[in-house]
Amino acid sequence: MIFRLLLLFYVFPIFLQECIIVDKPFECDDMIQILEYHNDLRSKVAQGRTKLFEAKDMWALKWDDALAVMAQDWANKCTLKPNTGRPNDCGENIAWLSLTEVQPIDVEAIIEMWYDEINKFDPEIKGIQGGTEHFTQLIWGETQFIGCGSTIFQDKEDSKVYQALVVCNYKPAGNFVNKRLYELLDKNHIDEETGEPVRCEKGIPSSRHPGLCAHDIGHALGTYVPCSRYGDNVQPTAYFWIALLLCGYINVFF
């Protein structure tokens, strides 16, 4: 298998589990899919390709291991209740699906379910609205990081039914009362070099996800991979620096 588990060595003692868990946490390709789909939807909103207004300074999300560990810990408790013990600066989305057999979780379907709450959202009303909190956290402009966990467990009342649970944590948190989801794009504030409205006074304009603001150049160009440090996705830039160091070593000693 090309990708390794992010939480391969995550320990959760069986005597602490509140349910019978039958499947493992997200793998690297799941993390990439979660990030890409979140950022695709955020990009769609930021560019004004929905009924909402165009955005300024909406971040392209990056993966955060600490958020993922916290999400996985909560997913292992097999509850739809929110994690009230999480830090105040951390937001949360939870989803639950019933299955007749153990199978890979369709993470895009989960994220789409959260996003579809846009249909109930009124853009003329400032701040969060009832029944749309999953959507508003998903596209909250100031949120920069995400980490998710999942589990599939047997139903307590019917062992032939399985429940798939997905928990995503976000930082900084969104969904503040009487606060806009994101800054609105000022089309009169023009960048002299590009002739386009200034979208990113924070971060770097993303070419990977137009309309969003990336954390750094690699993130902007799409070379960022959340689990590359686990050894299976070494980026070309890493090979370049390794070659450069080897050349320097040869020149010095030979």
TrEMBL record:
Keywords of this entry: Signal
InterPro entries per the UniProt record, alphabetical: Allrgn_V5/Tpx1_CS (IPR018244), CAP_dom (IPR014044), CAP_sf (IPR035940), CRISP-related (IPR001283), V5_allergen-like (IPR002413)
Transmembrane segments: none
Cellular component terms (Gene Ontology): extracellular region
Signal peptide: 1-17
Residue ranges of every copy of the SCP domain listed in the record: 29-178
A Pfam family assignment: CAP
PROSITE patterns: CRISP_2 (PS01010)
Record's protein name: SCP domain-containing protein
Provenance organism: Nezara viridula (Southern green stink bug)
